Prior knowledge:
It is a single chain. This protein is mainly beta. It folds into 2 domains: 59-75 and 83-119 and 217-294, Immunoglobulin-like (Sandwich); 126-213, Immunoglobulin-like, CATH 2.60.40. 11% of the residues lie in helices and 35% in strands. The protein contains 4 helices and 18 strands. It has helices spanning 27-42, 47-53, 83-86, 258-262, and strands at residues 3-6, 9-12, 58-68, 111-114, 130-136, 139-140, 144-148, 152-157, 163-167, 173-177, 182-186, 195-199, 206-212, 217-219, 225-232, 236-242, 270-274, 280-288. The chain has a 5-stranded mixed β-sheet with strand order 7-13-12-9-10, with no helix packed on it. The radius of gyration is 29 Å and the shape is globular.
Amino acid sequence: MAWCCAGGILVAAGCGPETDLGPVPDAHNARAIREALTSAAGSTGGGSQAAASTGTGWATIRGRFVYDGTPPTMPPYNVTKDPTVCEIGGRAPLQQTLLVDEATHGIKNIAVYVRNASRVNESAQAKDDTVLYDQKECVFSNHVMAVTVGETLDIKNSDPVGHNTNITGKNKFNQIIPAGEVVPYKLQQEEATPAPVSCSIHPWMSAYLLTRENGYFAITAEDGSFEIPNVPAGEELEVQVWHESAAGPGGGLVLSSPEAKALDWSKKGRFTVTLQPDEVKEIDVTVPASAFRG
């Protein structure tokens, strides 16, 4: 039998009509093309770069917000109903719109939360817990509160008079809570910003409820401190900073101090960080009075 060479491959001659199989793959050339395409994708702003930027490991964001100047004095609420219940010792409760600790100048009730995260640590996964949400002496016990989607609020009325708890936003709830009773309510949707909570029976009552898909949030304590552990390292995180009296859009706390500029603080009250595994990022910020309304 006669043999011939076609495209570098020996084939038997005289076995039927000749078939053109097209160009024969070259392993070396294929590898070179693949490496060139991978390199080109990595140099663009497309999906390949985004996938490559997703890191591993976990880190912590913590810090403190301190008021620059003399802490403001909160005036009392205008109690117009049920004074025997709502005015303890004949005094109306003080407003909570801007709480600054006299000793430390720490700012309470600032919400700090990660807007985007490609990975969520087990410790920050959404929960199905039950959380107490109380109303006592005609004040919401938690003026600013954060929970995850799937948690249930036990909306309680510890007063001897009825309250109408009205949660706005995506997790709408508007119901009378009789004296001494508890009504459960499961939160099912994420909110971009804390939702206002009020009582139409006692209109001075106000609070805010932040519902998020994961637990990457914190509400500052009396000394202005906060901590968000186990955030994903190795990728850019956008963090929202919110306060009910902030002058920025939607309650965003807008800052222009050197510390804020180093974090690329935006006009929406957001900053960005990319952390290394096991890094603890300290965010200590001094907040001027001009950052707040009024």
